[in-house]
Structures are given as structure tokens and as C-alpha cells.
Design brief:
Order of helices and strands: HHEEEHEHEEEEEHEHEHEEHH
CATH class of the largest domain: Alpha Beta
Number of helices: 9
Radius of gyration: 23 Å
Strand content: 15-25%
Oligomer: single chain
CATH architecture of the largest domain: 3-Layer(aba) Sandwich
CATH superfamily of the largest domain: Periplasmic binding protein-like II
Length: 260
Amino acid sequence: MARIIIACYVAAVLVSECTATGVTVDPVLARIQTRGVLKVGYDPGILPFTTIIANQAAGFDMEVARAVADRLGVAVEFVPTGLDAAYDELQQGHFDIIASAMPYAPEQGWRARFSEFYFDDGLFVVTMRATGARWQESALGVVFGSDADTYTRRLRYAGTIATPTYFDTPAELWQGLLCGQVSHVVVSYSTALRMQHTHDAVVVAPALTFAPLVIVMPYDAVALNDVVNTTLATARRTGAYTKWGRQWFAPFPVPTRCEQ
């Protein structure tokens, strides 16, 4: 019995040492290293996180994926998918990670592993200046059919706010704010960043909701998860996050005149 206990202890130490020295039993990372390619699943229609430019995958999340591939020392291949099928395809091995503005989904934890939160795309109130007025009592704008629309409808039905002014697109919402049709707007943080990049006078209030985005991996990708998290931390520290944000959260066009 003593020999069995000692053997188990030695085995545990060896596994620990192998992991510490970079030799891992992570099958996903081993597959990537053998293949020499990191396969990234993405939905190409989630601007500014994912898109296609000149037949190439592009966007904020594609920058993150390329940084992960660079850290691993492998090439990167982008595999288009639909978000409704992304978890199934990940589990089937069609790609190694999903980088596509994926919300944190703990209910998928039985088959997926999540990176640290790399972006909070929750809802924020934005105004052109600090007016001191409560946004609930101000002329409020939202994009029709957006998450902000759903959020403010609940408040309106509860009698907390008046009926907002609806706009068809974020660009039209921006113009409405800039031209004084509304004094406040409710938008996602990615849209708020675009507004901030357009005009220095934009003021973003504290968040109304929390919508963390993550990189998704198979459940057994333990070592790969460490690599992804290290890549995210490095990007924040080196300023790459700011660079990517400036590149992909592009300013809105400024209207040449406002309708009277």
C-alpha cells in the first residue's frame, strides 16, 4: 500500500512538473501545435467585432485571434459559422476557438471553456455634455429593435421614462444627438466608443447593464485558455487594445448640417 501511495505521489509530481515546463495534456493545444494552424470560428456579420474586408476576416476579435496565434507561433485560419451552430461545431472540432463577440454563457460550461472577459458591451447612457439632468427625464433616443430598445421599453411600461425617440441606425442616432433632436441616448459600449472617437464632448455615464464578451474554447482546452488569457493581458498592457479600438470602433460621420 505504501508503494502505491508513493507511486501515485510521484506521478502527480511528474504531471505537475510537465505542465509547469510547458508539456501539456491539453488535446486542443496539442492539435494546434501539430497542425501549425489555429482555427478560429466566427460569424462575419457582427461589426465592429467581426466582418469581411476584401474577402478576408477582419474586426476587433480577429485582431485578438491573430495575437493568440502569434503567441503560439502558428498560422491562423478563420472559419465562418453561424452563432446558432458555433458551440456544436466547436465541440465537433471544426475550429479551436470562437472569436465572435460571444457573450459569457455559463450554461454552456459543460462543453466549453471561457477566457477572461475582454470587452463589456453592455448598455450605457451617452450625452454630448454633462447637463446634470436625469436621463430618465430627458429627451431620450434609441435604435429601434436594439437591446437598448428592449431595455427602455421595459422602463417605459413601468412608467419610469417617457416614450423614447426611435432611430433606424446608430449613425442616425448619433446625428440626432449631435443635432439636438435628443439630449441623451442609450447605446452599447461599442457604439459609445464610436461616439467618443467622433467628438471630444461625448460623456458616457456609468453602465446600465453588464454584457461581458469572451473567447470560447472546448472544455478540455485548459492550457490554451491560459495562452488566450495571457494574450489578452499583454494586449491591455502594451496598448494593443487601444490601437485595435481606434481602428475598429471608427468615428461616425459628422453631418454637414442639421435639419431644422
